[in-house]
């Protein structure tokens, strides 16, 4: 009898972690494929289409077995899921249209501007803290699947800046010549796979497979394949 598929929840587009196809690819895709081979279980992708990223964790133990979507470990999310060992360390970055905002080089230059973030993303509390401190005029919350809309608003000048994990912003701005990542390392975050709170066995098996990938050098190779454009001082594999 063949092993059941490993049902993987992921949110597209979120490159370089989740890259839409065809064919589907990305850092997380390569990682779970390698882990699935070691567990003897085929991978079955389940795209998440909710407007709030936090909702993906509600599907664990129901429609999916694992969340693999560039997900940051937070204290709140520890109450929603059991986390495996981290595989990437990264942080929030700031993106602006350099033609329209040539004087913005970091979060200290956002006075009077509107800062955009995604609903349920770890950038959201950072943005609200900046607003509470009077460092931004307002925070605009986009649904999780509206990130391309947000970047379009940057280009149109109806949004002052946008915040999200650095490697994602590197990829999504690569073909938008007026947009640039002007600050990295705003936060220090660990990214890991997550399983249902009560699924200790699967978490243990994933951790063992990931350790094997680190020992063999395959984990580092996956990182070189997908994080090559990132700031090495702000983003890198945890091996």
Helix content: 25-40%
Bin the strand percentage: 15-25%
Instruction: Please state the second-level CATH architecture of the largest domain.
Output: 3-Layer(aba) Sandwich
What is the H level of CATH, i.e. the homologous superfamily of the largest domain?
Periplasmic binding protein-like II
Total DSSP helices: 7
- Describe the biggest sheet? 5 strands, mixed
Q: Element order, helices and strands?
A: EHEEHEEEEHEHEHEEEHHE
Describe this structure in words.
This protein has 239 residues and is an alpha/beta fold. The chain folds into 2 domains: 133 residues, D-Maltodextrin-Binding Protein, domain 2 (3-Layer(aba) Sandwich); 92 residues, D-Maltodextrin-Binding Protein, domain 2 (3-Layer(aba) Sandwich), CATH 3.40.190.10. 30% of the residues lie in helices and 21% in strands. The protein has a 5-stranded mixed beta sheet with strand order 2-1-3-12-4. The protein has a 5-stranded mixed beta sheet with strand order 8-7-9-6-10, sandwiched between helices. Helix 1 links the parallel strand 1 and strand 2.
Protein traits:
D-Maltodextrin-Binding Protein, domain 2; 239 residues; alpha/beta
